Amino acid sequence: MTEYQMELLRRVFAMNEHIVKQNYQITMVLTQPTISKSKEWKEITQEEVEIGLLASDYSFVSAGAWRDGVKWAEVRIKENNS
Fold it and tell me: In sequence order, what are the residues at sequence separation of 6 or more whose Cβ sits closer than 8 angstroms to the Cβ of residue 74?
């Protein structure tokens, strides 16, 4: 392979790498969740907390810790989105 052909290959690979990086950036922007300020937040129901507890590994370890964690997360989400 000639030096000219090698240089062309390097350019093709560099362009391909650039395209891959751009595609990654576009994908990241398009897949980020967006939060609508106009939509009112719904609280997590007690039933959802209990269902989550039963589906977790905490159901027989520390149900109180699970519930406290859910309440903590709900408060943080409200604060972050107010």
Answer: 43, 44
User: What's the Cα-to-Cα distance from 78 to each of 2, 5, 12, 23, 47, rounded to whole Å?
Assistant: 63, 59, 49, 33, 19
Q: Is the dihedral of CA 78, 32, 45, 65 positive or negative?
A: negative
What pLDDT digit, counting tens, does each position of 8-59 carry?
888 888 888 888 888 788 888 777 776 666 667 777 788 887 777 777 766 5
> Rounded CA gap, 37 and 43, in Å?
15
Q: Where are the alpha helices (DSSP H) in the chain?
A: 3-31, 46-55, 63-80
One-letter amino acid of 21:
K
